[in-house]
Amino acid sequence: MEITQPLPLLGGLSAAQFMRRYWQKKPLLVRQAIPDMVPPIERSELFALAEREDVESRLIRHGKSGWSLRHGPLVRRALPSLKQPAWTLLVQGVDLHHEGVHELMRQFRFLPDARLDDLMISYASDTGGVGAHFDSYDVFLLQAHGRRRWSIGKQSDLRLQPGVPLKILENFEPEQTFVLEPGDMLYLPPRYAHDGVAVGDDCMTYSIGLRSSALGELGADLLARMAQAYSEDLEDAGPAELARYRDPTQPAVDAPARMPDALQGFARKAIEAALRDADAVDRALGESLTEPKANVWFGEGGEMPGTAQHVALDRRTRMLYDARHIFINGESFRAGGADATLMRKLADRRALGARELARASEGALALLAEWCEAGWLHAR
């Protein structure tokens, strides 16, 4: 993607300008970010997705008795009448299940793939919404159909209403209000409070959300992955890794339940040695960031024809790379030279043409064939 070219999506700013001036700093309202927008997915298709087991969906209603929340799958008869006010259907990860929505999501690849999460669609009847709240991540709110009024504010009081099934702010203090028409978009940095309410029926808003891992959560996941890899590597370990604890100077004790200081030091040394391996940390991070979500699975793959002229990643496939590795769907591969260049091109472009395939080594082609059989890649 050309990051210095002005983009209608960003109100005439280039991606580089947007990142410098607005990213995680302040909101940006863009009128006609997508001019003459036509939603890539019909309402009926969205409702059909909400019925599926492998799609996360929620129904939110607000009335005299307060807020209610119901998790999917949601068959059509479980949804209120289209003319009934104050209800919202949220369907998560629509970009994984619809090619048109996936293509729209690709317009945001001026951001690292490691940070892009998914595209959620909010369908609301008149006055429908989910209450005033804040997100811990950046979000782009794109109006696809109908109209929505957004009230936003740099909230300092983040206390939540008690006894409510949603995380709704107790004392929301809006500072600005905008009504978004189809094609308009609002960018909000993390923890910027917002309340969106449908103005009229048939309101569809696309939320392009970003990944923002909590420090402790990410650390726990990486440590678990590193521990698993470390235990597997022990099969080929050398003398240093297989060295056992010894204590020739251990005296007799009169408090047998007390742990020896030397044993604790030995344990700390073992952990420190594992954490000094920067390569292991990088591998664990790449595997974590490309791990498909629990409700994502791939369809039946097929053989890669020997005469394949084009390969493309499945829209559910997550693929990243660093200076030494290729990561795909929770797996990592050491890569260097021409093969690494080829795989990085596949990750960035999400496709390879006949010219690139003609230059691929036997090893690279074998790997592509494996991914094709797994349904991670499609060839023609």
From TrEMBL:
JmjC domain location is 100-227
Broadest EC class assigned to this enzyme: oxidoreductase
For whether the record's keyword set contains Transferase, the answer is: no
Tell me any Pfam family this protein matches.
JmjC_2
CC cofactor: Fe(2+)
Which InterPro entries has this protein been placed in? Answer: JmjC_dom, NO66-like, ROXA-like_wH
Choose one Gene Ontology CC annotation of this protein and give it.
Answer: ribosome
Q: Which GO terms describe its molecular function?
A: 2-oxoglutarate-dependent dioxygenase activity; metal ion binding
| EC nos | 1.14.11.47
Going by the UniProt record, its keywords in alphabetical order are:
Dioxygenase, Iron, Metal-binding, Oxidoreductase, Ribonucleoprotein, Ribosomal protein
Protein name per its UniProtKB record: 50S ribosomal protein L16 3-hydroxylase
